[in-house]
Amino acid sequence: MKTKKDINYSFNHTKERILERYNIKNLTMEQYNHMCQKILNKQNAIEIETEHQDNDTQIIYDLEFMHRNPIRVVWSEKRQCITTVLKRG
Questions:
Q1: pTM confidence score
Q2: What is the 3-state secondary structure (H, E, C) of 20-88?
Q3: In 33, 47, 60, 87, which residue has its Cα 20 to 30 A from 13's Cα atom?
Q4: Dist. CA 66–CA 51, nearest whole Å
């Protein structure tokens, strides 16, 4: 059975990766939505790289989060949300 990769899937995956890679615990849906809005509004989001795929475009951003050093996130143009968090450096 194929997993439906919707906003809830992306949130849960991002929540796991932000804990694993930045030790940020208990990411809330409100915080996640705020991060997504920052990218949509081009607010404190620095574009690093764009990758065009067959059915989507993914953009890597460094994004300010909770007044920490920026975190690196992957944005899906198709889904209009953050899909994961990467380690910086």
A1: 0.91
A2: HHHCCCCCCHHHHHHHHHHHHCCCCEEEEEEEECCCCEEEEEEECCCCCCCEEEEEECCCCEEEEEECC
A3: 47
A4: 27
